[in-house]
Amino acid sequence: MSVFDPHEYRVALLAGGTSGEREVSLASGEGAQAALKEAGFEVCMLDPANKEDLKRLIDEPFDVAFLCLHGKCGEDGTVQGFLEVVGIPYIGSGVWSSALAMDKVKAKLFYERANLPTPPSVTVIAGDMIDGDNIVAALGERCVVKPATEGSALGVFIVEGPHDVEEAISKALEIDNEVVVERFIKGTELTVAVLGDDVLEALPVIEIVPSNDFYDYESKYAPGGSKHICPAPLSEKMTERVQDLAVCAHRALSCRGVSRSDLILEDDGSCWILETNTIPGMTGTSLLPDAARAAGISFPELCTRLIKMALS
């Protein structure tokens, strides 16, 4: 059996893109680039927003693509489809799973089909009549309103009462043509990364303590925006349960390579899956590298494992 030598592989690191998460993607790219180079890979950083960079993926010999793209036209299966066409293996989930996980409405259907607990919700499509009274009657006074296909908490609102629900939906519809309104669930915010394809490994659970009211864009990416407690101070039994939910979510959406699921744990022990990310952040404040370090996996080792899975 031959030894895997990173020095033999040329990596196309894709970061940037055209979504509202472009700056975060570029920061992820910088973090991953340093880790990949430390591991010994030859790395070429490319931006899919630049057509010349896309052309290089066709014309130049790359062994694998390392994706640090977040949001639309990057995390939603579009770039994955392009890489399939040009024949370059890539880290993470395939076209269908990437598109599914990015669409919160459809992902919730697959969670429910797998008997995974996910907050009750109502879907509003552009052009629908927005009835805040009916939504509040169905979900409760306090709701979370979010665009169906955005990430990094872009356009997410926590609101109370019919009028504020209607206003938040209108604002979210300026970002996306489909909006999810969920029952607000008060509890501890947790996240669990999962590595693997057939054999899955849940990394240590992280508790997120945001500096703001919830884990919004600023809390995710600004230095000091949130505190990560890893491993989360949970009982062994609860830790196993939360990790199992993340593994089941990974399977329910047919993810591969890596995923990171966000959850809410109520005081009574009820735990709810919120969403699953197929390309977790790779910045200095990101959760996946934190969880890997807690499991004894360095950032360069993590990147190497992701590439080995992509090539297997």
What average pLDDT do the residues reach?
Answer: 93
Which architecture of the largest domain per CATH?
A: 2-Layer Sandwich
Unreliably modeled segments: none
How many domains would you count in the coordinates? 3
Q: Radius of gyration over alpha carbons?
A: 19 Å
In total, the number of strands is 13
Biggest sheet record? 6 strands, antiparallel
Strand content: 15-25%
N-C termini distance: 14 Å
* CATH superfamily caption of the largest domain: ATP-grasp fold, B domain
Number of helices: 11
CA-based shape: globular
Reading off the top of the CATH hierarchy, the class of the largest domain is best stated as: Alpha Beta
What is the element string, with H for helices and E for strands?
A: EHEHEHHHEHEEHEEEEHEHEEHH
Assign the structural class, choosing from mainly alpha, mainly beta, alpha/beta, alpha+beta, or little secondary structure: alpha+beta
CATH level-3 fold name of the largest domain: D-amino Acid Aminotransferase, Chain A, domain 1
Fraction of residues in helices? 25-40%
